[in-house]
């Protein structure tokens, strides 16, 4: 086993931020007044409540006082949460090779119990072989990366995949365009090994793969790749993750999450069922023989 599921700092920040927002609204305090209490702006309060930034214990203590939270046990619980939320996760060791905006996703991925993803360009990272991940890393927009940086990125990708073996294991449901599995990233041999690895992954009880055939007439997810993350903590809403070239979006508003959930469910229901994935992969492998 690769360890137990833990709540990462990103998720803890979101949980604490949600608690503080509820306390502020219950106390009838505006974001402007809350910002004044901790010598910050209204936008800083908004970022804190969304879990986008770290917490200073002094700020949390001042906000709790402003919101009328004086009971020692409750204050201690939330201040402990603030301290835990500031502890770096294991992925921070790779901060030298990943953009800052990707850290939040790594923290959420480490906490999630279910990730559903739609892919149009690459095999999902959690299912990539080392050679495939190495070839993807060489496609980076910044030009030629040094080999040492590429190997760090591959090590990060491999470390992330331990989530599929932890207790309880992360559940992954991937809907992949067939064009992804025909694109010879890294060359034919790398692609063949990647297809073999996907074939093996489909035997895992916690991994589901569906492939959208090239001849598909179209579908609802016309906006590009995205992922939906669900968490075991009731305090955390589902999150939609959208990655761009130089940034990422994290959507947790109910309407946004519902729209993407419906799109993914439509993709899954109109694509060949998972029971056909093995046959589809074997057919793709035959093309490379």
Q: What layout of secondary structure does this protein have?
A:
Elements: H1 9-27, H2 31-37, H3 42-49, H4 57-66, H5 72-85, H6 100-111, E1 114-119, H7 130-137, H8 147-160, E2 171-177, H9 188-201, E3 207-212, E4 226-230, E5 239-243, E6 248-251, H10 254-270, H11 277-288
Parallel strand pairs: 1-2, 2-3
Antiparallel strand pairs: 1-4, 4-5, 5-6
Helix pairs in contact: 1-4, 1-5, 2-3, 4-5, 7-8, 9-11
Q: Which features does this protein show?
A:
289 residues; alpha/beta; 434 Repressor (Amino-terminal Domain); Endonuclease, Chain A; 2 domains; six-stranded mixed beta sheet; 47% helix; Lambda_DNA-bd_dom_sf; DUF5753; DNA binding
